[in-house]
Specification:
Length: 189
């Protein structure tokens, strides 16, 4: 009888090891998914701060450059796109990229108005926005790193089996849609 128990014990040990490996893969995927959501939320907080700061900046610039309607309309359109995106991460990312581009245009407009560039409110808003842009860049970098880890885990064997069983889906990376933004700027003296 003791000799016939050995195969059963071996099978039980193998099943327990497989269950522990399965649980470890599942828990790892859950942890990475939660880190992705946390990273997106952190990035979202910084973008919300920027979103709230933009109207103050626009109003300050409007006082000096009332005839620059196109730029102001683009800023408003980008903000609306972000608001209407709701929980759709990809749409929000597109709106945020659009807002980033329109803010560059807004600062280009400001360059044409020396009085505006010397305005204390404008300088303060510009400094706050610059600081927020740095925080947003760092949070995007962290988000993309966590998404890379999550997506890799979802696509590699054997965790991809667990991922497909429990419907873990790839997460989108935060990317710049405009190819020109990826190129290094040309500096001429």
């Amino acid at each position: 009888m003791p000799g016939s128990m050995i195969p059963i014990i071996v099978i039980v040990v193998i099943v327990v090891i497989l269950l522990l490996a399965f649980a470890g893969m599942y828990n790892g995927l859950v942890g990475l998914r939660n880190r992705c959501e946390e990273a997106f939320s952190t990035m979202d907080v910084y973008m919300k701060k920027r979103f709230d700061l933009v109207p103050n900046l626009v109003e300050t610039v409007k006082g000096y450059a009332e005839h620059e309607r196109g730029t102001f309309n683009e800023v408003t359109q980008a903000r609306s796109m972000i608001q209407n995106a709701g929980n759709d991460q990809e749409q929000r990312m597109k709106g945020e990229n659009m807002l980033t581009n329109t803010l560059r245009s807004l600062f280009a407009v400001a360059e044409n108005y020396p009085d505006l560039k010397a305005n204390v409110n404008f300088l303060d808003l510009q400094q706050q926005l610059s600081s927020l842009e740095g925080e947003i860049a760092q949070s995007r970098k962290y988000y993309n790193a966590v998404v890379r880890d999550f997506n890799t885990r979802c696509e590699t064997v054997p965790s991809n089996i667990v991922a497909s069983m429990f419907h873990f889906q790839r997460k989108p990376s935060y990317e710049l849609p405009d190819e020109a933004e990826r190129e290094a700027p040309k500096v001429q003296f």
